[in-house]
Amino acid sequence: MHAVRLNRVFLVSIAVEVFKEQRAVPESDMPFESRMYPPATEGNLERAIRSAGAGDTLFLKNGVYEASQKPYIEYNCGNCLDEFTRVEATVGFKVDGRPLTILGEDQDSTVLITNAGYGILFDYASGSAIANVTITGGRRDLDANATDAAIVVKNG
Predict the structure, then answer these.
(1) Which of 25, 123, 124, 137 is placed for a possible disulfide with 113 were both Cys, Cβ 3.0 to 4.6 Å?
(2) pTM summary value
(3) Helices (H) then strands (E): counts for the chain
């Protein structure tokens, strides 16, 4: 088993544990079975993402994690003739300004429901990664110029 230093643990009705990796940890060595908490509510995963530090890994227990849709203004349009066209979009989960890894316990049983056009937005979060989750529940934005997708990466 590889060494993992525990950095933070969110215990308020949440199934997310934050670890600072000292080196890569094989999926088979993840400490899921010893830490069973109730599934996170929609606000808890969003709060955990906001609270996590640069380089942290969020380990998501099996469950359904639902985001609340929030407005998002895109000032650099990748779908427009004029790249500076203002686009009104929505975002579900948002990682911004730092690298963060989101790792689910089981791809079929760890489900993120985004309720937004930009399901998970990695906004200037170079070095981030997401794996072993199912992303669903996206909503088409009303602005036809929005780049709606389950995962949107924006790195300037």
Answers:
(1) 137
(2) 0.72
(3) 1, 12
CA 28, chain centre distance (Å): 21
Structural domain span for residue 52? 4-71+92-142+149-154
User: What gap in Å lies between CA 111 and CA 15, rounded to an integer?
Assistant: 12
pLDDT < 50 positions in the chain: 1-42
- Residue 93 belongs to what H/E stretch? strand 87-96
86 falls within a domain: no
The DSSP element (H or E) to which 108 belongs, if any, is none
Alpha-carbon distance 3 to 28, whole Å?
Answer: 13
Domain-located, residue 10: yes
Distance (Å, whole) CA 27 – CA 4? 13
Residue 116 lies in a domain: yes
Structural domains counted in the chain? 1
Could you tell me the two tokens for 48? Answer: 């955990």
Task: Report yes or no on 39 lying in a domain.
Answer: yes
- Cβ atoms of 89 and 46 closer than 8 Å: no
Give residue-wise pLDDT tens across range 10-29: 322 233 444 433 333 444 44
Residue at token pair 């427009």: 80
